[in-house]
Amino acid sequence: MIPAMLDAHFSLLNYAFYSKNYHPIIIENEEGITDIGLKYVNNEMCYPAILNKKEEKIMLKNERKIVDILIKYSDYLFVLAITILSIYIRNRLLPIVSGDANYFLLPWYEEIKNSGGLDALSKQTGDYCILYQTLIALFTYLPLKPLVTYKVISCIFDYLLALACVMVIRELTENRLYMIWTFVLVVCSPIVIFNSSAWAQCDSIYATFCAWTIYFCIKEKYSFMFIAYGVALSLKLQAIFLLPFIFIIYLIKKQFSIIKIFYVPFMMIVLSGVGIIYGRKIWDVFLIFKNQTQAYNSSLTSNYPGLWAIFSTEMADLNIKYSTAATMISICIIGMIFYYLMKKMSNINKEQILQLAFIFVYIAVLTMPHMHERYGYLYEIFAIMLALLYKRTIIPCIILQLITFFTYSSYLFKQEHMLTVLAVINIGIFIYYFWIFFVQKENEKTENLCNNN
């Protein structure tokens, strides 16, 4: 900014500065400039100094306006800055080729492409669900590198997942700051970033629709809840971990008919419609899940620090032998928690909906055998939202993120870690969450009732 003391001559300075790639702003004189200048400068000062002081005030006034605008829109600017930064981080991780990408995802992509794109839907490729296989088949027609295709799809859903979580938080609190931090923490979570942009996995896609399932449950729009859940299950079997949550909502709230659950298979069939048109059978939509469960059963745990990481051995035959027993034990544990909560809870408020979803997904992944390190993705997203609502869960949430990051680094970067130690910590964190959400609160209610009597 240059104060204009001689209007006819100072405008010529523009050309001199432009020649050196500078872009000056000549502050033009305004009506009353002398009077305002005299207000701040002794009248014995030279006339140019009086004008210069006035123009300085104008500059400060303009700066103040800019600062006011920045403050007014600081929320949007902060979110925009974080979004740009998170996109940059993801872009830097795109060249990483994980083992899954190298041995499974990329060969499957080439198989789909070489089979004619959509024509490849007539048969099963890898262990994709038909809907996801359809998405990949469509992307084979675009001039994109296979690895970039996988990662871009998942990265886009990272942000859609964050927006879905914002909608959930919006229903639970009117605090605008919580909504902003929800978006920021989800898109900047190391688990979310590495899952999509480094590993090329699609957990953010199914998790997005699981978050919408929770949202519609809070809104008591149960038809949409089952539709969203059907989409999630069409994309990944891990959405099944939400099923106990849906059943306890049904039993306690008594606000919808169990018949609505048929929206789920209906949506799965509809979303697999392109594959069915190209020759797949309707029952293939569901048989894929059976094949998936049988494909990864050589170990009681696949790098996930759950209950069976404490007992798992390197001997595949022993792990297979104990697999059924481990599954039955898991069902019993989930069943006991289900029964306890059903008896303790006479009603379910909005906050408890998120708590229940978190607890049931967490306990299912924690106790079921054959779990991969990525299967905790959904409850880790729920933990971020809970940490914003309940300050005493901030530290457990951070520990959960670190545990998973350690297991991710073990696979992606070949870093060693003590899976058994992480499993013990993980179990302890679950007990803590369950205690503060469903045991401690009940004890407080009992004490208050006794004191009132």
TrEMBL record:
Provide the transmembrane region boundaries. Answer: 69-89, 148-169, 176-194, 226-252, 261-279, 322-341, 353-371, 377-406, 418-438
Give the highest taxon in the source lineage. Bacteria
Q: Which UniProt keywords apply?
A: Membrane, Transmembrane, Transmembrane helix
- Write down what this protein is called: Mannosyltransferase related to Gpi18
